[in-house]
Write a structure and sequence with these properties.
Elements lengths: L1 E5 L9 H15 L3 E7 L8 E4 L2 E6 L12 H15 L7 E4 L2 H8 L7 E3 L5 H8 L5 H24 L2 E4 L2 H11 L6 E3 L16 H6 L8 E5 L8 H13 L4 E5 L5 H10 L6 E5 L4 H6 L3 E4 L8 H8 L4 E4 L10 H4 L6 E4 L3 H12 L2 H18 L2 H12 L1
Length: 394
Amino acid sequence: MKIWLLNHTFYPARGGIENYLRGAARVLGEMGNEPIILCRRHLPELPEEEEREGIKIIRHPDFPVPSGRLFHKHFYLTEKLAEWLSASAHAREGLVISRFPHYQAAVSRLARVPPTVYMPASVFPGLISFTLGANSRKEKFFYLFWKSQIRALEKEALKGASRVTVFSRNMMEQLVSHYRLPAGKVEVNPPGVDSERFKPGAGDPEILRKFGLRPDMPVLLYLGRLSPEKNLPFLIEAVAPLLAEDEAVLLVVGEGPEKGRLEEMVVSRGLANKVVFSGGTDEPEKYYRLSDIFLSPSLYESFGQSILEAMASGLPVIALEHSPPSIRVAAPEIIEEGESGFCIPARPAAMREKVELLLTAPRLRREMGAKGRAICRERYSWERHVSGLIELAR
């Protein structure tokens, strides 16, 4: 079957949704389907069509928003996308899976709507309060102005979809509560993780040399976007005393708007030599392999793919516990408490206590890592996830 995967970005963008599209498309192809990723051509040098890793990619124009329509940006973009889809032959047959509300709303406006699955990555009105953080006043103004537009598009997407599926109960509860959806409208289908790509192994000597990491020094790892909802200042505060005492180093892998602020925070605390900002990477598996403990301080996650990758790589995980409305995460759905990691209250001392426990207990780290890997292989395969999507289509 032809399966269209729609999102506003894909390669060369890097992030949780892009990694999901790559993993799902790969397995859909292996199962005899024809996956096609349809996304925005956000860089002029990108081709309109190409094939990467056996996955076909089609890019639509990056519609510039006229200054007179800026306050109605999201309505405008959805209108343009619907017009482009109507004029093309794309997303007409097979199954359409949309990861972004604009795309699901646009598809639902076609004269002949194919079977569609809407797979929201967040509930935008809920997410926005976490992401504004230290953004500029101008950004806050626009986000707050656009909030009602995206909420309207989310409602249109939910109404127009043949099925709605999400990765976690956390996400399901948010959707049902915020949009007052009927019971049974939203189904939970957790994603997969490639346990062959993400597996325990020796650290790459080249990366160790590049960032001055000692093989005998424990590495605490954060891997993800550097943005307000990821709560990185909390993480630095939590582990600062351990770093100062030379018990470990903190490796921060990723890019984002908070990077400058975080670097200043590290310097002001005298930890410039104890915290490494490596930037983004196309090979996250190499960073998991050279690390000892994975830390996820996020305040908002619809799921938490990096937690799965860390567990598959044999790392114990420490994350915040789900505590709405201030913390909305799915970590407790993934981590078996005390077996593959810990979910802690949002207190720096609580995270520091668990990190210190694991630093002083290498055997416990290995046992937790082995348990986490076993959980991934048993419950979180791409084949299992994709089979769930195919069943929805049927």
